[in-house]
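Entry 12.
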Amino acid sequence: MLSRRPAWYVPNMFTSDPAPETKSDRTRARLRDIALTSFRDRGYDATTMRLIAQEAGVSVGNAYYHFATKNDLVQELYLDVQRSHRAAAEPELATRSDLVDRVGAVYRTGLDQLTPYHPHAAEFLSAALSPRSEINPLADASSAARDITEGLFAEAVRDARSGGVPDDLAATLPAVLFLGHLLLALFWVYDRSEGQERTRRLLDRGLKLLRTTLPLARLPLVRGVLRDLLELIAEAGR
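Predicted 3D structure (tokens):
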């Protein structure tokens, strides 16, 4: 009898990169896989470069040769989670044509991929809060992972066949939706309800409000104000 997988499960979670060819490549991949597993199971604080090197069977110096800091490995984690997010979201987008349904699919699959990390999420948040932190989601170092998420929202908006918005608003909306994703994740970090149900309910209410207000975007008296508001919010994430 086949076992049931949890909703967040994505096969080969830590094997999205091409198979390493050289010994150095294999060492780097092993360090990365050990770090990603440790971040999930032990959290940010307990995962150290020394521990990663020990489990990989290499010297600490060798580990630092491949990854200059632990935060470089956190960026690998960000990429891994967002690649899994993309793999989970795209099949959902393929079955939906309504804009709000598509946006909701991106948000929900994003929360699904975060689920295994909830027990230690506050540690990552604490390390990322400083504007100077290399693992701040808005930092330049985080741009590759950020581009994946914002790209999913762009796809959700661009390919919607119903409930869409005018082109000038559609150009800015993905960046605003990405910032909404960060705020939702922040709420999720502090959510102690079973399965973070409060976060899910907050998302459902937000999507319902979005569905109610989107038709206003087509009214000439509202459209310009809404465009300015979206551009102002998007600017905060640049």
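Annotation: Confidence is low (pLDDT under 50) at residues 1-15. The chain has two domains: 16-68, 76-235.
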